[in-house]
Write a structure and sequence with these properties.
single chain; alpha+beta; five-stranded mixed β-sheet
């Protein structure tokens, strides 16, 4: 194999994971509370490796509670302001009861990322879900 072919093959193999990831759909949905409410419930459906990023503005010291219902395949992680899913550590994630709550460390926009575990995503399963976010 010529050096040029070897270089092109190496570059193509290096790009393959990025190309596969680029095909995954990431939907961003802002969370808004109705006037006087301190919680909101949103519904959606995931398929395969797709994810939904629910964004919500909150202040330091407030308590956030998150619950996911619907398909048992729907899981979530909570990310603090400035932390991007896949590029930083989650502030929290669902437990065995599919809930999480915690005191928020900073003011800004939080991200609740809903996703499927790899085994279900690989099979292309769907995960209809409802996500409830409460801020107190």
């Amino acid at each position: 194999m010529t050096p040029l072919r070897s270089l092109l093959l190496t570059a193509l193999l290096a790009l393959t994971p990025m190309l596969a990831t680029a095909a995954d759909k990431v939907t961003t949905t802002p969370v808004h509370f109705t006037k006087g409410a301190s919680s909101a419930t949103l519904r959606g459906t995931l398929s395969g490796y797709d994810t939904v990023r629910y964004t919500i503005a909150a202040r330091a010291g407030q308590t956030m509670a998150v619950t996911v219902d619907g398909s048992p395949n729907a899981n979530f992680n909570v990310f603090a302001p400035g932390v991007t899913p896949g590029h930083g550590e989650a502030l929290g994630s669902n437990d065995e009861t599919r809930r999480w709550s915690g005191t928020l460390p900073s003011t800004g926009t939080y991200v609740v990322q809903v996703y499927q575990m790899r085994a279900q995503a690989r099979r292309g399963e769907k995960a209809p879900h409802s996500l409830t976010v409460a801020i107190r």
